[in-house]
Amino acid sequence: ETIQQGELPAKASAIAPTILETGKSFTAKGMEVLERVGKETMEFIVEETGMEVDKGSNGEGDQQTEEEQFEEVSFDRCFYIYGGPDQLEELEALSSHYALLFNRKKGKLNAEQKTFYDGKLKEVQQIFNLSTNVDEDGPESDKGKKIESANTDAYAEMKKLCEASVSKAAKMAAGFTTALGGLSPNEIIKRTTNRLETIHSEGVHKLSEMCCLAVSQLLVLGKSVISSANKSKNEDDENDVKIDWPEDPISKGKIIRWKAQSISVDMEKVSTSFATGISDVAEAYAAAMQNALADKQDDLPNQKSLQEKVKSISIHLNSDQTSAVSKLQDALQYLAYVVVCASMPSV
Asked: Which of 27, 126, 227, 346 is deepest in the core (most CB within 10 A)?
């Protein structure tokens, strides 16, 4: 009965949060993020000021611990910490529910109508494929921009996170040439390694945070589409984002696609900013080493490991951006049945 009425399944309805609720929720996972960021900030201060902090023994155990911590900084791990899998699970539940409802409704239509809505579903799924080209100019684009103004808090939060991330990446790389001045070759390698790892860690965290926020925003848009289709039931729901959705599922799809595309561009900006930071640090390192080794003829340090680290981190950052867009793509496709089903006649 619930499915035939087109209501949200209990789980999706209960857990699918608004953007503001998501932002206000402090969980154990969030505290884990704060602890890691705090550690990275202290390391950054140590590098900038040259202060030494007693970390205990510098034996093989500590070296192994540092390597393990570096390996732990992965997109999937951070995505989990920020609650991303839970958001995707809710969207998947929503998709499954509306796929079932779509088939129930379609079963009561005549052959011509069945073909019509099957075609609409395929078209929306194609629109939701971020690798395909869709005309981003026109009325749907204007509608998409109106969504941003209708959901001002969410829009501002995403833009603020993007701008702060780009600024942070630039700040972490700025002035590093000066910081390496007058240091020994081995100290230059040590400082550079620490800075590279810190930038990499921060970049992964920011991409993960943006991706989770993006998935959450798509979930809110999906709920808004559902509420719009059931106006009589939800007109007094203060948690819904009020958007004047068009009746046509293709127009709905293009509006949501515009939103996802905008988020994807922001993700690319953040990824590029941290990649640029890595490149700037590598250039500062090369210049500092050239000066430090000018008068040094023997006992030259092995620079190969650091060069490999620069290459590895750059590859990982690029892979992390790909992972973030992939998660966004998954979230987008989960809304296809929701969009089409909301435009079908009631059964």
From this structure: 227
The answer to whether 206 touches 270, Cβ cutoff 8 Å, is yes
> Is residue 285's pLDDT more than 80?
yes
pTM to 2 decimal places: 0.74
Q: What is the distance of C-alpha 212 from the center of its chain?
A: 5
Q: How far is it, in rounded angstroms, from Cα 339 to Cα 247?
A: 10
CA dihedral over 238, 240, 242, 248, signed as positive or negative: negative
| Cα–Cα dist 56/144, whole Å | 55
**pLDDT tens string 292-304:** 887 665 556 667 8
- Judge contact between 245 and 225, C-beta under 8 A: yes
Q: Which two tokens stand for residue 286?
A: 């090369």
Contact between 221 and 213 under an 8 Å Cβ cutoff? The reply is no
CA count, 13 A, side-chain hemisphere, 245? 27
- As a residue count, the chain comes to 347
Sign of the Cα pseudo-torsion (57, 61, 64, 65, in order): negative
Q: How many CA atoms within 13 Å lie on the side-chain side of 92?
A: 9
- DSSP three-state, residue 274: helix
Are 83 and 27 spatial neighbours (Cβ–Cβ below 8 Å)? Answer: yes
DSSP letter (8 states) at residue 335 = T
Q: What is the pLDDT of residue 198?
A: 94
Burial class (CB in 10 A: 0-12, 13-18, 19+), 184: exposed
CA dist 206 and 200 (Å) reads 10
Rounded Cα gap, residues 254 and 127, in angstroms: 7
Collapsing DSSP to helix, strand or coil, 182 comes out as coil
- Compute the distance between CA of residue 53 and CA of residue 47 in angstroms, rounded to an integer: 11
Give the tokens for residue 204.
């992964």
Any residues with CB less than 8 A from the CB of 327 and at least 6 apart, and which?
A: 79, 84, 88, 211, 215
**What per-residue confidence (pLDDT) applies to 213?**
94
CB 267 within 8 Å of CB 207: yes
Count other Cβ atoms within 10 Å, centred on residue 279: 13
Cα–Cα dist 182/288, whole Å: 8
